[in-house]
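Question (not urgent): is this output format expected?
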Amino acid sequence: MKSPEEWISELDLERELSEIRRDLHRNPELSGEEYRTGGQICRLLEEWGIPCEKGVADTGVVGVVTGTGGPAGKTVGIRADMDALPIEEENKTAPYCSVNPGVMHACGHDAHTAILLGTARILKAMENEWAGRVKFFFQPAEETTGGAARMIEAGCLEDPHVDFVLGLHVDPGCSAGQVGIRYGKMYAASDMLTVRVYGRSAHGAHPDEGVDAIVVSANILNTLQTLVSRNICPTGAAVCTFGTIHGGSVRNQIADRVEMQGILRTLDHETRRFARDKIRTVCEQVADAMGARAELIVEESYGPLINNDQVTDVVLRNARTVLGGENVILEQAPDMGTEDFSYFAAARPSCFFHLGCAAPGDKKAADLHNSRFDIDERCLAVGVKIQVRNALTLLGME
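Got this back:
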């Protein structure tokens, strides 16, 4: 069996990956609008003889390759997100700079898509050397509405039933040729919080005749500052941030209503439930003690992304084989950001890892969601090599 490296050389895939990524980067599309992107993906898959279904969860694409080297066994799913961000790109001198004003691939989803296409290309080329199936999930709307959940609802994990799922994200904090891997808790869950406090209006000269919703809100916020420091286990993790507060209309009137908006981030389901309940209790009881009323509205967003140990073992071994142990970083702490791959990880044993994308030696690489973000394209072939090996290893597992 030829190695992924040999197939990359034979297919001149590094050049093709760069061309694909640059085309996608030049033509970014926002969440839910990935029509051209999906069309380009289908065109390439069909050109390579890979059957695909378009329009999954509106703009998503699912491709599948069946290995003919033995009886059908397990099925592995690999996911890439496709959407761009509403950011005006500053890299105007790059030949692949976005041509869509105010829209940019500032989170590397163009790279993720190119890597998944390259992975599909190699697995198709060597289909007679392995058995089982690999499904390729080109997912819309990671940045906004949780396209992963909608793809799962549309049935992407069935027909055939998917046993494992793999995913990655480029990381400008590491150099191309490095990866970061973590066991267990990888990304946080998030809940959007809206607190409405209802008091009683009065003239500012007669505060005793009203109930000041601003003062009540201040006490709620102060009390919530102890949520993490005094209520969450020190070995756990949570972040509760309120970023907006609005109340009152004139300076000499007691405000009768305040609305605050925030976000809660937690790393496991138990802490998530406890923290939400505690926030509700604080809001309601502090308000009641001060003669006001408060309500908490929780909009549940992504769940925590928790890697499966068995699948993570596979990714770790293959990354070390491809890159050498010195270039594989075992990450010690989870990221309190969110990632909607969490829906796949909750549904099937999964592993999500970080793929270094900064130029070696570049200590000032622009971060994700930055208008100057770019990648060292050498990371594309690295991602393909690892994902091909990951898929083949998982297909051979008992």
